[in-house]
Amino acid sequence: MSDIPNPHRGEVPLALGGQVYRLRPSFTALAETEAMAGCGLVPLARRFLDGSYGLRDVVAVLVPALKAAGHGEAAVGQMVIDAGLLKAAPACAALLAAALAPGRELPNPL
Question: Under 8 Å CB-to-CB from 59, ≥6 apart: which residues?
Fold first, then answer.
């Protein structure tokens, strides 16, 4: 399995802790994201677009997408804290855009 994100599959790169991870928006990952966030993908994407997202939202997007790409989920929260919440938010928004509107890009949430 390649670690290079495949945009045709909706995969998005995420640079954290000196490493680049591949995020994959599989059906299972998206369903788990909704369960972890406590809302659907559209309201979650809105939070990223209007800047009202929080750490829980970022982790809800990253953990399932990392698992779907074959990465472990260990220490995701700590990696986000160490790198900064604002560093992970654009990748989360891009992943949600890939899931909701393939081939289009949502505006950067920053």
Answer: 36, 76, 77, 80
How far is residue 42's CA from residue 72's CA, in Å, rounded to a whole number? 26
In whole angstroms, what is the distance from residue 79 CA to residue 103 CA?
29
CB 48 within 8 A of CB 99: no
Amino acid present at 57: D
What span, in angstroms and rounded, lies between the C-alpha atoms of 73 and 62? 9
Q: What is the per-residue pLDDT across 71-104, written as a single tens digit (0 to 9) for each?
A: 776 677 777 888 888 889 999 999 998 898 766 6
Token output for 94: 């891009």
What does the DSSP 8-state code read for residue 106? P
